[in-house]
Write the structure tokens for this entry.
Amino acid sequence: MAADWIVFWVCAPISIGSAIAMLLQRNAVHAALFLIVNLFTVAVLYLVLGAPFLFAVQIIVYAGAIMVLFLFVIMLLGVDREERLVERLRGQRTAAILLGLGVVGEVVFAIRAGVGFSTRAPAGFGAANGGGNPQALGRLLFRAYFLPFEVTSILLMVAAVAAMVLARRRERPVASAERRAQEPIEPSEPSEPSEPREEEPVG
Amino acid sequence: MRTPIAYFLVASAALFTIGSVGVLVRRNALVIFMSVELQLNAVNLALVAFSRMHGSLDGQVLAFFSMVVAAAEVVVGLAIIVSVYRRRRSADVDDVNLLKW
């Protein structure tokens, strides 16, 4: 028994199980916690596949930063909201599950045709990973992939600016939610196009 | 490495499918977003597995870029969800029907 075999059979079922559990949770916070479990197990699979740098990045960026951002927004929007379970389109859920099974069957068939279930990876990453995986990755990133790397920085900057612009409170057109909560008696505000609906337990 | 690469690819396909079923089935915009993250993550797993199979690091670089794009996407998407929530007091995708015919 090779170690990677054991690690795979421990981590892959946990990751798929936690993904399914995430799907079945009605509470958004629980779904986020299951997603964190899933991200951790996928990070361990990266480690098995010889990508220690991506293992660290996965845990720091995904399970750390992105999931904290998610939890932050969930808390901001209210934790106690639960989803309505009524289907708006009849049969949507069954159709989605059937189509999902179709996709997974199709992809497994494609993997069998294209890769084959007995193909094993070459023994070592030695040649590609000369001097360690992060070093080799950095060399590749700053030589062959230098332009995409710089474009990525522009993307991140644009995303930061976009987040600030989108989340900014505009004074007139959108009456801010907090002001409405603080001053319940507001002198006849012009009728908004989207008045909040009454007592609808939305999730 | 004794585990065949195809096993990782099948796990990745399963995760991707669960993510897409989540996008189709769930109503809460945040959970839909988490399902999208799951899909991106599944694709990353496939990329790393292919990188291992071919013995080159290009797949890992691609997975790295896809992580960066996912981070940017989450930032913008969550800002949009917060701003929709401010207007509609709801994070339910069915309530956002302004563009519906």
Observations:
- Chain A touches chain B through 95 residues (CB under 8 Å).
